[in-house]
Amino acid sequence: MMAKNKEPRPPSYAVSVVGLSGTEKDKGNCGVGKSCLCNRFVRSKADEYYPEHTSVLSTIDFGGRVVNNDHFLYWGDVTQSGEDGIECRIHVIEQTEFIDDQTFLPHRSTNLQPYIKRAAASKLQSAEKLMYICTDQLGLEQDFEQKQMPEGKLNIDGFLLCIDVSQGCNRKFDDQLKFVNNLYIQLSKSKKPIIIAATKCDECVDHYLREVQAFASNKKNLVVVETSARFNVNVETCFTALVQMMDKTRGKPKIIPYLDAYKTQRQLVVTATDKFEKLVQTVRDYHATWKTVSNKLKNHPDYEEYINLEGTKKAKNTFSKHIEQLKQEHIRKRKEEYINALPRALNTLLSNLDEVEHLSWSEALKLMEKRPDFQSCFVVLEKTPWDETDHIDKVNDRRIPFDLLTTLEAEKVYQNHVQHLISEKRRVEMKEKFKKTLEKIQFISPGQPWEEVICFVVEDEAFKYITDADSKEVYGRHQREIVEKAKEEFQEMLFEHSELFYDLDLNATPSSDKMSEIHAVLSEEPRYKALQKLAPDRESLLLKHIGFVYHPTKETCLSGQNCTDIKVEQLLANSLLQLDHGRSNLYHDSANIDKVNLFILGKDGLAQELANEIRTQSTDDEYALDGKIYELDLRPVDAKSPYLLTQLWTSAFKPHGCFCVFNSIESLNFIGECIAKIRTEASQIRRDKYMANLPFTLILANQRDSVSKNLPILRHQGQQLANKLQCPFVDVPAGTYPRKFNETQIKQALRGVLEAVKHNFDVVSPVPTIKDLSEADLRIVMCAMCGDPFSVDLILSPFLDSHSCSAAQAGQNNSLMLDKIIGEKRRRIQITTLSYHSSIGVRKDELVHGYILVYSAKRKASMGMLRAFLSEVQDTIPVQLVAVTDSQADFFENEAIKELMTEGEHIATEITAKFTALYSLSQYHRQTEVFTLFFSDVLEKKNMIESSYMSDSTRETTHTSEDVFPRSPRGSSLDYNYPDSEDDTEGPPPYSPIGDDVRLLPAPSDRSKYRLDLEGNEYPIHSTPLNCHDHERNHKVPPPIKPKPLVPRTNVKKLDPNLLKTIEAGIGKNLRKQPSRVPVAPSEDIDQSDNYAEPIDTIFKHKGFADDIYAVPDDSQNRIIKVRNSIVINTQGEEENGFSDRISKSHGERRPSKYKYKSKTLFSKAKSYYRRTHSDASDDEAFTTSKTKRKGRHRGSEEDPLLSPVETWKGGIDNPAITSDQELDDKKTKKKTHKAKEDKKPKKKTKTFNPPIRRNWESNYFGMPLQDLVTSEKPIPLFVEKCVQFIEDTGLCTEGLYRVSGNKTDQDNIQKQFDQDHHISLESMGVTVNAVAGALKAFFADLPDPLIPYSLHQDLLETSKITDKTERLHELKEIVKKFHPVNYDVFKYIITHLNRVSQQYKTNFMTADNLSICFWPTLMRPDFENREFLSTTKIHQSVIETFIQQCQYFFYNGEIVEAPNAAACHPPPSNAVQMVEPMVPLQLPPPLQPQLIQSQLPADPLGII
Q1: What pLDDT sits at residue 883?
Q2: 896 to each of 329, 496, 635, 859, 917, how far by Cα in Å?
Q3: How far apart are CA 1145 and CA 937, in angstroms?
Q4: Which of 24, 558, 566, 1151 suits 512 as a labelling partner, its CA being 20 to 30 A distant?
Q5: 3 state DSSP class of 555
Q6: Contact call for residues 79 and 143 (beta carbons, < 8 A)
């Protein structure tokens, strides 16, 4: 059973390969190929094929187990599968004859038969005979595979007869054929199949092969197979054919001629080779080794196939060739890189044409080696050539191998380099020549296209030489230069016309009339016309300038890093630090000083006399003063000594002070000259900076002979010189003394020196008290214009070079403190140096005792800015004008400088101001004494200045309300509690416009802590440091502070109720009734217990009211009186209660005005601008009209710029740019008057509400119908899409988004730029998120029709009354579907955006409710002229809030969202009148709250409504 289940074993056949064998005499020098044929068949892989097999063996090898003393070899077996799938095993035996390597005769074997008989044997036997592999196996059998012949015996089943058809080696073919014939006869006797294998057909001799074929044809069934063991052609075929003859059941193989079989084999090899080469080419690193790559590829089929066919050796050779190619390619690329880099190296080392133009390449190489940069460009290698060194692998080393320069390619590069230098020199010359040609053409204007100019230069030699690209590049450069110059000149022109821009309140936005006025004035200027072809750039510069005027900061200053504020901060930070460090070294341990070095200066022996007197009063040079002993080191020097300066300050003697003694006018003058010389010389040579600040003391010597009549004169002159030098003056004490110098004088002088030393120590004390730093007696502001052609060091040097200069309080980076003796006492002066644009905020908001206005006498713009600034300064504040130029000679040599200096001096004369000049080349004018007289003048007027400031601040506090009128960056009026000087024991009394008996305002000490609200009550405010104007420019408005209870004051009288009634009666009788929509509480509601009357004008201001708080009485009959910005017209002449008398008495005092009304020069400048735009009016008419127009403008008064227009909300709360002027006001007044007359006529149909035009330029995009701005592919207007994308990308979390107003100039600029280029990037414009948000709202405000159609407003109103929330939302959704498709898409887009904004409410604080308040007027365009609409404003706002909250429900089929506030979910009451706060669009600060006043308002007792 088991035998049946065994699988049948494949048949096994034994084939004997026979052929010519024997000694060299028998077979020649080589065999017939029997061994190679057997080798190729049994082991066909190329690596296992050995082309050399020897038959000459030693006796030992012959007796080994492989040969085994036999003349045949066992090659092993091959399992072969035929075409029919039947396998068989073929054992291969080679019959040969082994020759003894000693005797060269056949070895003796057990079988002594000759080869022919032995080869024909059909049975072979050899015990333990091993399989033969190669010749190297003999003797080393253990190193090879050991496989025995099966059972030690084999039965031969067929014979393979080998015939060599090649030329042979010393062998005749006929002899071989004869041997084969005999062998064949012997083989045929065995009756075994025989096949002839024609071997070595790759070296075939044709007639030999034909003879073999003829031999075979004479035999029966004898087949010839043409083979080649070397190329593995038909080797397998001959064995397969023999097996078929032994087993007839197998298919007969097709015998293919050698050439055809060879072609097939070679094609197979070629294909495998191609695949292998591609495989090898994947290796890109020429450092790769065969071992690494072969291990990596050994399992790849293409690799294995090639190895089998061609062998490892050929594969390795192929790989080596590829690696060599990679290396050569790498070298080639490196060489190419070096050659390409050579021109750059030559440009670095040999860039001068004059040096290399006539040098050979070898000379140039020597020159390059001497260059300092040679090592950075080239590397000299120790081994050469470079491509055979490891330098080729240093890919990061870009230096060129120096031996590469010896090649012809490098020399050619050098020659090209020289030629390039020559041509480039010529090209540059021609470009410059062409540039000069363009500069000579006068009509080329900025912005002129190249095409308009080319016709004028086409014949130019330089133009013909250079290329078109070069000519365009030169013209472009020329254009950039003239454009840049024109823009700089245009900007300079704008500054020259500063009065045009600074005459308006800085919180306003210029109206279209103002812009027209600006263009009308500027259009006459050639510098304006120069940018005619660049009108958009010109407009952009103008808008940028206006934006800077209205919002000036040092960050946005047009001078950039040359802004005066930045320069001053840097200079003070460095100078004050060095100053303090130097003083700390000089006066180290000055608090406990024991030794005093004194320098005594006098004339005609006075110095020595004083020194002798001091020594007389001393004991061993020790002087007792105030209970302490001081060691004195005296150094008297005569003032006439030529060694004065060298003796004054040496390394061994550093004086703490200098006593200057005099006894006559001559000696006093001489001493003054010496001190000036000492300071000037010390400052010039900079030997020691503090030498110039040495403390001096003037001492008057006693007149011993008689009482001199000149003593009072000497005292006066001495005191004057001491004031000028800022030093103490020691007078002769009263009484008669026998000596020239008195002990009292000496002690007083010593105390002065010690005090000065102690003061210098205190200045540099590391921990000064805040109280000391803040106690400034005077606050002076020095103004300079950014970009002026002088350094801030020049204008600050008079203070920085002073020994009494120190740093201001921490945080005041642009201020310094100056200690000066003014009058009889030392004063602390705070000098704040600012640019003019920063000084504007200080001028309006802060207490300033005086201004030092600096201008450059070389620059008209500097004078223009000074005029504009000075015009608005109150004439109570002293001013010092300072002109800056190089030297005094400029005045006589330069007419422009002379004109500007004369103009400055003339203005100073007109306004009674100080004028001086600073010269950059002079040292004397850098001394503090330049401003001593000005400081004295300021000190004299200090009380009046502070009283005026307190009065103005009081009125501003009374007239403004933070919540109703948001405070602008510079418009806010801040309250400060400034400490007075040590002389001021009491603050100035508050100014009362009614009388001295009634106090309407708190005292100055109290008013700094409280601010009046709209009812006259006080609530606390926080004070701010002086130099906080930078912080005040932030647009954030602080929240109102809850008022504290009033503290009763017993010394304040109440306002007489009868007086109040008199005022009201006067208003009611004489004022024309003004329609107003702002509710005013009647007089009955006034709390009689309040200490203050209600300032009605703080709620609103009528158009007829004058802005000026100070009104000059007309006459005794028709007297106009301003009381806290309210007008009382006195028609009776005198009032019973004495009111008019008090007013007259009060107005008898001089009221502050502005310098522009005091200087004809300043006023004429402003009037000249007015004449240019109103040329049809006379001068008087123009001035009158100008004043009238200014009064009518809705931009607040000059005294209080915070007052906002009363009725601006009529044009739409959300409109960002509604302007008003006198003409519009007049039209409205006439319209209302005309309407009042026609009340009795039948009412006509109401006209459609048209919003005022916001833009002041023509646009083909903004203000267009929405349908014209969209397409079916892009349903959202591009501008809306850009704005929303910008906001959501950059500012979705911005606090107060859509609530905080952006820069109006930036908003206009965004739209203007978009008008010119719809593809403009908002990010590249550098605008803020709030400006983009404002521009987006302005887009909707400018639409001809609101986004939510008027036709649906009533439906929305009715739907909002539905109480059920779900039903209400459903109805609203149906109304939205009625929108025009275009409106619907845009509405959906903007509401979705607002919903995303509201989702960030935790960071931007903009809930849906806040957003709806900001956006509903924009989306619905309400008509505030309609009283009926006012009663429904809250409902419409809540509708927009619902749309934002329920965005997903309305537009995306989402679920209804629960509102965060339960109250927000309920619909508004049906009675809309009861829930609306009519007439008051904004909340007022506490304690005044908006009253719910509608029809219940009683008759207005004042006759205002």
Answers
A1: 93
A2: 73, 14, 52, 9, 15
A3: 28
A4: 558
A5: coil
A6: no
Q: What count of other Cβ atoms lies within 10 Å of the Cβ of residue 915?
A: 18
Residue 815 CA to residue 779 CA, distance in Å, equals: 10
pLDDT over threshold 60, residue 1172: no
Give the number of other Cβ atoms within 10 Å of residue 63's Cβ: 13
> Containing H/E element for 538?
helix 535-550
Q: Which of 884, 888, 932, 881 is nearest to 907 (CA)?
A: 881
Which residues does 1297 contact at the CB level (< 8 Å), separation at least 6?
1287, 1291, 1329, 1330, 1333, 1397, 1404, 1406
**pLDDT, tens digit, for every residue of 533-579?**
889 999 899 888 888 887 888 788 888 888 998 989 888 888 776 55
- At 830 the three-state DSSP class reads strand
Helices (H) and strands (E) in the chain, counts: 58, 29
DSSP-derived 3-state class of residue 635: strand
Cα–Cα distance measured from residue 675 to residue 682, given in angstroms and rounded to the nearest whole number? 10
**DSSP line for 1024-1041:** --TT-HHHHTSS--PPPP
**Residue 1407: which residues within 8 A CB-CB, separation 6 or more?**
1398, 1401, 1460
Distance CA 866, CA 872 (A): 10
- Rounded Cα distance between 1448 and 1450, Å, is 6
CA distance 536 to 521: 18
Query: Do the Cβ atoms of 463 and 471 come closer than 8 Å?
Result: yes
Distance CA 905, CA 918 (A): 13
Cα–Cα dist 1069/1067, whole Å: 6
Extended beta strands in 258-328, E state: none
pLDDT digits (tens, 9 = 90+) for 1365-1389: 899 998 999 999 999 999 999 999 9
Which one, of 1273, 1097, 1103, lies nearest residue 1189 by Cα? 1103
Other CB atoms within a 10 A radius of the CB of residue 378 amount to: 22
* Helices 361-369 and 408-440, axial angle in degrees (round to 10): 80
| pTM of the full structure | 0.44
337: number of Cβ within 10 Å:
13
The alpha carbon of residue 1014 and the mean position of all alpha carbons in its chain are separated, in whole angstroms, by 46
Q: Write the CA distances from 750 to 177, 731, 761, 1170, integer angstroms.
A: 147, 14, 17, 64
Instruction: Kindly provide the b/e burial profile for residues 67-92, where b requires at least 16 CB atoms within 10 angstroms of the residue's own CB.
Output: bbbbbbbbbbbbebebeeeeebebbb
Q: Which two tokens stand for residue 1451?
A: 């537009």
What is the C-alpha to C-alpha distance for residues 1452 and 1396, in angstroms, rounded to an integer? Answer: 14
- Half-sphere exposure of residue 1396: CA atoms within 13 angstroms, side-chain side: 13
- Which of 150-164, 772-786, 882-896 is least confident? 772-786
Q: What is the DSSP letter of 1326?
A: T
| 132 close to 91: Cβ distance less than 8 angstroms | no
Smallest CA-to-CA distance from 462 within 475, 472, 453, 471 is with: 471
> Is cis: bond before 1025, omega within 30 of 0?
no
**Cβ count near 905 (within 10 Å):** 16
Among candidates 498, 508, 503, 492, which has minimal Cα distance to 550? 508
Q: What are the tokens at 945?
A: 């200045």
1429 and 1422 Cβ atoms separated by less than 8 Å: yes
**Residue 988 structure tokens:** 């100035």
SS3 label, residue 373: coil
Count CB-CB contacts under 10 A for residue 1049.
Answer: 12
Token digits for 258? 């050698």
- The DSSP secondary-structure symbol of 1069 reads H
